[in-house]
């Protein structure tokens, strides 16, 4: 019961903090937008699916394992 009360106090603390933010809310929105662009939009255009183009279907795990070993030995 005490743990539940403590977790509720922590939740309430952060909820009130974010609720009363003005500038911070805008900054968090900008940060989340930038993360979305970095991880989802740029990935589509600049990072092709290397494994799908170089490995046979059903042999993806084997291909990745071999590539990791080859690259480790090459260094």
Automatic annotation (TrEMBL):
This is DUF4492 domain-containing protein. The chain crosses the membrane at residues 26-46. The lineage of its organism: Bacteria, Pseudomonadati, Bacteroidota, Bacteroidia, Bacteroidales. Keywords: Membrane, Transmembrane, Transmembrane helix. Pfam families: DUF4492 (PF14899). It comes from Bacteroides eggerthii.
């Amino acid at each position: 019961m005490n743990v539940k009360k403590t977790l509720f106090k922590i939740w309430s603390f952060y909820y009130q903090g974010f609720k009363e933010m003005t500038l911070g809310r805008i900054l968090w929105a900008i940060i989340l937008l930038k993360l979305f662009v970095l991880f989802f939009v740029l990935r589509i255009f600049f990072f092709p699916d290397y494994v799908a183009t170089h490995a046979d279907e059903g042999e993806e795990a084997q291909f990745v394992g071999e590539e990791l070993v080859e690259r480790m030995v090459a260094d």
